Amino acid sequence: MSLSSENISQIRTFTETLILKESSRLSSVSSQTGLLITAIIKSAEILGFKCDVNPNFKIKNLDLVRILNNIIENPSDYETIHRAGPVGFSALLEQIKLSQNRTLYSRTLNRDETRPFLSNRPLFKYYSFNSHSVDSLENSYIYHSKVTDFNDPFDCNARLLGKIMRKESYPIESTILINDFVEHIGVACFSLTKSSILMWSHYGNRHTGFCVEYSSYDLNWNAGEYSNAEVGSFHQSILKSAGDIFEKLYQVEYADLLKQLTIMPTKKGFYRTVKHLFLTKYNDWSYEQEVRRIIHLKETHNQTARKISHTREIVKAIYLGALVSDVNINMVKKIIKEKYENRVLIYKAVLSINSFAIEFELLDNKH
Fold first, then answer.
1. Which of 28, 89, 354, 357 is the 20 to 30 Å CA partner of 225?
2. How many whole angstroms from its chain centre is CA 178?
3. What InterPro entries does the record point to (predicted)?
4. Both 139 and 66 in a single domain?
5. φ, ψ (nearest 5 deg) of residue 228
6. 147 with 18, same domain?
7. Does 75 map to a domain?
8. What are the backbone dihedrals phi and psi of residue 272, each rounded to the nearest 5 degrees, phi first?
9. What is the overall mean pLDDT for the chain?
């Protein structure tokens, strides 16, 4: 629901009462302005402010004024006002429920722990044109790759982890156990940007490929149950402790130094093991702005199990590379017309004449 003049007046009145040297809780801001918490968080992210998804998270009032003004100035970018009822964070609670994550309200969870990506921001996945990528678009699924196929040899590498500490206080080598666990993992990689020249070059096959825009909200729906997985004891221990990480979206963290994490045989220890192993990359890759969804497979060579289906509604747009062929343009138009009933917008990248940047033009897909 969009902002009305009355809503805008309510928000401005609220900002005028703020004491700038203090801070406000998200839940309080939501209830006093009528704004969805998800809209406040989205505005904060766009402006570069760090904002936790916990309704008890406090924002400095000086920053909050900028966040709220951004919503007022760009109301069409947000689903802003509660549709019904006085609950300020009902949409966020529903999203957490769908992702089956209960750690967000745990006061014992350290602030630096990775949390699910619950933003409403769209996610983008780059593809080159081949039989596999076209099939995934045509049949509505996302393939979760083997980590051994990644182009970064440090990515998901057992050398990120050190020893496994036993309760008896003696260490054993972790490499064999971790490598076996990694064999059972599939990863789908997304980005927060559709305009990276480097990513179009690397993953979009030198700007001849395409990029799909997905709804991140819907990609968090397929949360599996791993506590009773029929796997070996080491797998079982990790999955019982870190099962919340699988089949949901998490942002990759970037680091300058290779830090070896000692694996502690505790719930928090295994949780940090999975986080460190699958969500840590060297800082040179930070331009990718990567978000990942990780799955665990019972059978390591089951290619079908790596194809996670989705509803057609989560595909919002297709972006074609600046050097895409006419044949591939027509093929995408045909798929969108026949499989998606022309509900998905199609754009084509063009090179900016003013800067080293990519711009996008909307294509007509009526014919």
1. 89
2. 25
3. DUF2971 (IPR021352)
4. no
5. -115, 25
6. no
7. yes
8. -70, -30
9. 80
In this structure, is residue 226 part of a structural domain? yes
Q: How far apart are CA 351 and CA 330, in angstroms?
A: 21
For residues 336 and 320, give the distance between their C-alpha atoms in angstroms, rounded to a whole number.
13
Nearest C-alpha neighbor of 358 from the set 249, 125, 170, 195: 195
Residue 302 has pLDDT above 90, yes or no: no
**Encoding tokens for residue 365?**
């897909």
Return the DSSP state at 83. Answer: S
Share of the chain above pLDDT 70, in %: 80
Decide if pLDDT at 114 tops 60. no
Tally of CB atoms within 10 A around 139: 11
Q: Average of pLDDT values for 219-225?
A: 58
Residues 163-215: tens digit of each pLDDT: 776 654 445 566 777 888 888 889 999 999 999 999 999 999 999 999 999 98
Q: Mapping DSSP to helix (H, G, I), strand (E, B) and coil, where does residue 54 land?
A: coil
Q: Quote the tokens at residue 57.
A: 């998270």
Residue 25: how many other CB atoms lie within 10 Å: 15
The amino acid that residue 285 corresponds to is W
| Burial (0-12, 13-18, 19+ Cβ within 10 Å), 220 | buried
- pLDDT attached to residue 305: 87
Same domain, 58 and 133: no
Cβ(297)–Cβ(306) below 8 Å: yes
User: Which domain, by its residues, includes 79?
Assistant: 5-98
Distance, in Å, from the CA atom of 225 to the CA atom of 243, rounded to the nearest integer, reads 7
Q: Residue 200 has what pLDDT? A: 97
Residue 105: band (very low, low, confident or very high) from pLDDT cuts 50, 70, 90 = very low
Going by C-alpha positions, the residue among 121, 122, 123, 124 that lies closest to residue 38 is 121
Cα torsion for 242, 248, 253, 257, to the nearest 10°? Answer: 40
Locate 120 and state its tokens.
């409403």
Q: What pLDDT does 83 receive?
A: 47
Q: pLDDT of 28-39, one tens digit each?
A: 888 888 888 878
Q: Is residue 74 part of a domain?
A: yes
Residue of 147, 164, 296, 276 whose CA lies nearest to 236: 296
Three-state secondary structure call for residue 181: helix
CA 207 – CA 95 distance, rounded (Å): 35
